Amino acid sequence: xxxxxxxxxxxxxxxxxxxxxxxxxxxxxxxxxxxxxxxxxxxxxxxxxxxxxxxxxxxxxxxxxxxxxxxxxxxxxxxxxxxxxxxxxxxxxxxxxxxxxxxxxxxxxxxxxxxxxxxxxxxxxxxxxxxxxxxxxxxxxxxxxxxxxxxxxxxxx
Length: 157
Description:
CATH topology of the largest domain: HSP40/DNAj peptide-binding domain
Strand content: 35-45%
Mean pLDDT: 90
Radius of gyration: 18 Å
Shape: elongated
Strand order of the largest sheet: 2-6-5-1-4-3
Organism: Azospirillum argentinense
InterPro entries: UreE, UreE_C_dom, UreE_N, UreE_N_sf
Number of helices: 2
Family: Belongs to the UreE family.
Main location: cytoplasm
Helix content: 10-25%
Largest sheet: 6 strands, mixed
Structural class: mainly beta
Number of domains: 2
Number of strands: 10
Distance between the termini: 30 Å
Protein name: Urease accessory protein UreE
C-alpha cells in the first residue's frame, strides 16, 4: 500500500525551501511533529508517507519535500495550553521556570510568559507560587532542551 503513496523524504527548515512549489499543508500537534516514518494525511485529505532517514522535530513553516519536487508546508496545530505570567520580575520568572524544569515539563517561552500543556495539578502549583494562569488555544513549540542537539532536528540544506 505504501508504494502508491506520495513520499516525503526530506525536511527543509522554514525559509530554506521554495515556497512557490508548495503543494499543500499538513497541520500537526506538537507530539505529531516528531516522527521518522508513518502515513499521514495532509490538510486536503490526501495520504502521504513521511519517510525520513531519522526522526526529526518538525517546526511550523518547515517544508516536507515530496518525491515529485513539490512541498508540503508544516503547520503547528492549535492546542489546549496554559499561559503563565509570573510576578516578581526576573526572580519570579526564574523561580517558576525552575519549578517547571524540575518536573521535566516541556515549556515554551513567549516574551514574558511561559506556555505549557494544560494540567490542573500544575496549574494549582503555579497559582500557589504566585503566578497567574490563563487557558489559551495556540500552537505549542516548546524549547528543545539542553540535550536535543542544535535546537532543532533538521538540516538547512
